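Hey,
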Amino acid sequence: MSRASALLERDPEIDQIESLVRSARAGESGLLLIRGPCGIGKTALLRRAVERAGRERLPVLSAAASEIERDLAYGVVRQHLQPALRREADRRAILSGQAARAAPILDDVEPAAGAPEPPPTADLDGLHCCYLNLAGGAPLLVAVDDLHSADRQSLRLLAYLARRLEGVPLRLIVTLRDGEPLAHPELVSGIVDSATVTLEPSALSVDAVAELIELGLSRPPDARFAAELHSAAHGNPFLIGELIDAVRSEGIAPTVAAVAQLKRVVPPEVVRLAGRRLAAVGP
């Protein structure tokens, strides 16, 4: 439900994403930023880009940052690169040349005692070369969902990549939740400032909400019911979907008479997510 609602009234964004994927397939580089508040549909748009890339036979490296892995060094980078290292032939090709510097990072190997201190940017240089070697001179799409939750080391690498896209057939697509406290704002800002295209999906209209209610409840809603649900969710696709699911589970009909009942509906998934975010803030 939430994914369908997140893609409703998104034709301009989808058209731009598909155009950018086609240009990436042709070898153009750049960074696409999809930003907005929680639940506005950023992840659904990112998935659409990845799906389109698949249809265009454009290789994709995908990763999703997570709050619970924020302290895991290179967590996003490992999601991108480690699956490609499983075959020995691929591993040799990806870790060839300067990329060999990144092998200890990707293999979780501690530096040997007494080993010389590597240059300050050795990890960045090595990982950067891994992405280039993996692309092999061909177009490559690198996707990162929830940039705000990424670990510091991965953010450093993404900022490093973002500043070195010119002349490289590599397209970055990242999503960023607005209003989120950032553990590493200077690194996130460096990535955001490198964006060549920024998409900011807006709230859904009352008409879209009415359409979603009809899809979810198998009957058209009264105009006042649709307006009330739209107001309660502020047009947010995720909240709209959760409210419709809760209305369906409670057997509420989308009528004027049920508007008072709607005001008392509290979707359990929203309660869970809100509780988790409050717990993360602490006292």
